[in-house]
Every structure is written in C-alpha cells, then in structure tokens.
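Q: My labmate handed me this sequence with no annotations at all. I'd like to see what the chain might look like in three dimensions before we decide whether it's worth expressing. Could you predict it?
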Amino acid sequence: MDFDKELDARGLNCPLPILRCKKALAEITDGQVLKVMATDPGSVKDFQAFCKQTGHELLSLETQEKEFIFHIRKQIKS
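A: Here is what I predict for the chain of 78 residues:
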C-alpha cells in the first residue's frame, strides 16, 4: 500500500506508539497516509480505538511475525 510518511514505533510500549503517531499525523496533510510499524501487542486495540475516537481512517492492519503494520489515513477536515 502506498503511504506518505513512515513511523517506526517498534520496541516502544503503550502509550508511546500512539503519541508518536499523533505527532506524525500532525506533520502530514489531510488525506495523506501514515504507515506505522509497531511490536507492542496492545497497539492493535490502541490504534483501532485511536482512529475511532479521532476520525482518522485505519486503512489496513497487517501482522508479520511479531510486528504489526498499520496504514492510517489522516482525517480530512472540511
């Protein structure tokens, strides 16, 4: 999947992946896609809840061994 920015949150535990994601999303424009790589098993539920609460779109979630890859589209504000 295409993305505009990549965030490596591997090795970080809650809440750091979400905090770094929030910062990275602030650095891209509305509608762009952020790729996040994380290893914290709790990040799956954390990112699902984060997207639901903030209006960002969780486009995909892949699991590769002990790594989780998320593609998040930044909310388009009208």
